């Protein structure tokens, strides 16, 4: 009797272990299916993310606005990362423009008056310090580092050479589209120059640098959407202009005559 009970108990344990092993195999199978489904969904979702990455950006921009502006302190000022510094720079430029344009100060007069005021204050301070038992002011030695001057001169030289190379490429007659764009830009600048003097034009450009990049960085998605529509319309109008006008200009014949 005891042997029969022990045999039934062992058989029950064997059946229970068999059921547990089958259950584990089924669970593992479902886990593998779930993981393969999730991998498939990830693979399917990757083209969607790729499409999101290929969103239209103004002028084909691939980097953030901060990087386009140089990524340094100048970019921080133009994008108002530090509002006090940006406001100070813009305020200083406004004061200079008011002095030269509205008050009609001349550059040499302003420099001389500023030096007179600064030297008078420092001279009186140095002599009055002995009467009031205070130490005289210490003036630091100011000198332009040679490496900075050479670096600035080298950068200016590189930019000038780049501009001259671009002008040479345009004048060679290889790209009619770029030629027309440059002519139109120079014509617009000549009109602006006839309306305002150089200082006002420079100040206006400075103000635009402090406002346009900041507003674009804040509302770039909306601006890019409108810019995409505008670019499509411009390309359509240019295609019509190219067919009706530019294609009829005998550029190849003129090149053969001058060759």
TrEMBL record:
<dbReference type="GO" id="GO:0009617">
    <property type="term" value="P:response to bacterium"/>
</dbReference>
<feature type="transmembrane region" description="Helical">
    <location>
        <begin position="85"/>
        <end position="103"/>
    </location>
</feature>
<feature type="region of interest" description="Disordered">
    <location>
        <begin position="1"/>
        <end position="21"/>
    </location>
</feature>
<keyword id="KW-0812">Transmembrane</keyword>
<feature type="transmembrane region" description="Helical">
    <location>
        <begin position="179"/>
        <end position="199"/>
    </location>
</feature>
<protein>
    <recommendedName>
        <fullName>Reticulon-like protein</fullName>
    </recommendedName>
</protein>
<feature type="transmembrane region" description="Helical">
    <location>
        <begin position="110"/>
        <end position="128"/>
    </location>
</feature>
<keyword id="KW-0256">Endoplasmic reticulum</keyword>
<dbReference type="InterPro" id="IPR045064">
    <property type="entry name" value="Reticulon-like"/>
</dbReference>
<feature type="domain" description="Reticulon">
    <location>
        <begin position="74"/>
        <end position="259"/>
    </location>
</feature>
<keyword id="KW-1133">Transmembrane helix</keyword>
<dbReference type="InterPro" id="IPR003388">
    <property type="entry name" value="Reticulon"/>
</dbReference>
<dbReference type="GO" id="GO:0005789">
    <property type="term" value="C:endoplasmic reticulum membrane"/>
</dbReference>
<dbReference type="Pfam" id="PF02453">
    <property type="entry name" value="Reticulon"/>
</dbReference>
<keyword id="KW-0472">Membrane</keyword>
